[in-house]
Amino acid sequence: MNYKRIFRNQQLRFMILRLLQFVPDRFMLSMQYYIKMGCWLDFNKPKRFTEKLQLYKMKYRDERLCRCVDKYEVRKYVESKGLSDILNICYGVYDRAEDIELNGLPNQFVAKTTNGGGGQNVIIVRDKNHLDEKDFKQKLNVWLKGRLDACGREWAYSGIEYPKIVIEELLVDERNEDGSIEDYKFFCFNGKVCCIQEDTGRYGLHKRNLYTKKWELLDVICTYPSVSVSPKPINFEEMIQIAEILGKDFPFVRVDLYNIHGKIYFGELTFYPGSGYEGYKPDSFDFELGKYFTEY
């Protein structure tokens, strides 16, 4: 069942899930897992990666997760690891959209709220002269009121009590016709990279490849079609090192990085990829990945 086809409006879906906050996590996660994955969640002897992510949401409590899912506070965490050079330019941080002075911003930028996840709550502005300022600010203010922890039972987001708006530089790769940049996602278990997910064509025909740590293409499909092997990014070994530095404090985290002409940029730290509801083909890969997830 694809519940998004039934409730197409995201805000409506979020409202319904918030109304169900009184339902215990164990029951809610079990039902959501069955609806989205087509099988029951095994709480006692989980073997799948996607199963263990549900228990990670329900049981693992480390205040650093709350800091790292916040799109602004995570910058301080990256700095604390001696990696400030990979941070994107931040033009401003705001408590409310009304405080944003568009005249003081460059023509292109990215606006997002610090409580967003899964690629949500992001506005890409390519030409502010064609921006509907009223709609732009209204969206941001609505997003500030959102609570992802209530929707996906993703505990880490419960620590963002006062979300903010962040305006950052828009990264562009002129080698791609749509200006998109390749997104490299490093799956780290206890500070060791297990595999890498590469997302391309984010603004058009979204493709996704999975690789080993040696950049060997895996015969695995996750949500989006796979394509032929891409060239290994410049400074790939340095990207591995960065991912393992940022991931060593956690049983599991996906470290998202960008690489433009060899210049590495930090994306985000993701503790619950796809909220644990992204399946794999073949299904056996879910079990293989689950073997690395030993603490939750």
In short:
The chain has 296 residues and is of the alpha+beta class. 30% of the residues lie in helices and 19% in strands.
Features of this protein?
296 residues, single chain, alpha+beta, four-stranded antiparallel sheet
Description:
This protein has helices spanning 3-6, 10-19, 25-37, 49-59, 63-69, 73-80, 133-144, 148-152, 236-247, 284-290, and strands at 90-94, 109-113, 122-125, 165-168, 183-189, 192-200, 207-212, 252-260, 263-270. It folds into two domains: 3-168, no CATH class; 183-290, no CATH class. It has ten helices and nine strands. It has 296 residues and is of the alpha+beta class. The relative contact order is 0.16. A five-stranded antiparallel β-sheet has the order 7-6-5-8-9, covered by helices on one side. A four-stranded antiparallel β-sheet has the order 1-4-2-3, with helices on one face. The chain is globular, with a radius of gyration of 19 Å. The mean pLDDT is 91.
Secondary structure blueprint with pairings:
Blueprint: H1 3-6, H2 10-19, H3 25-37, H4 49-59, H5 63-69, H6 73-80, E1 90-94, E2 109-113, E3 122-125, H7 133-144, H8 148-152, E4 165-168, E5 183-189, E6 192-200, E7 207-212, H9 236-247, E8 252-260, E9 263-270, H10 284-290
Antiparallel strand pairs: 1-4, 2-3, 2-4, 5-6, 5-8, 6-7, 8-9
Strand portion: 15-25%
Number of strands: 9
Q: Total helix count? A: 10
What is the average of the pLDDT values?
91
Given helix and strand content, the structural type is alpha+beta
Order of helices and strands: HHHHHHEEEHHEEEEHEEH
Query: How would you characterize the largest beta sheet?
Result: 5 strands, antiparallel
Morphology call = globular
Number of domains: 2
Give Rg in angstroms: 19 Å
Report strand order across the widest sheet.
7-6-5-8-9
Q: First CA to last CA: what distance?
A: 28 Å
Question: What proportion of the residues is helical, as a percent range?
Answer: 25-40%
Low-pLDDT stretches are: none
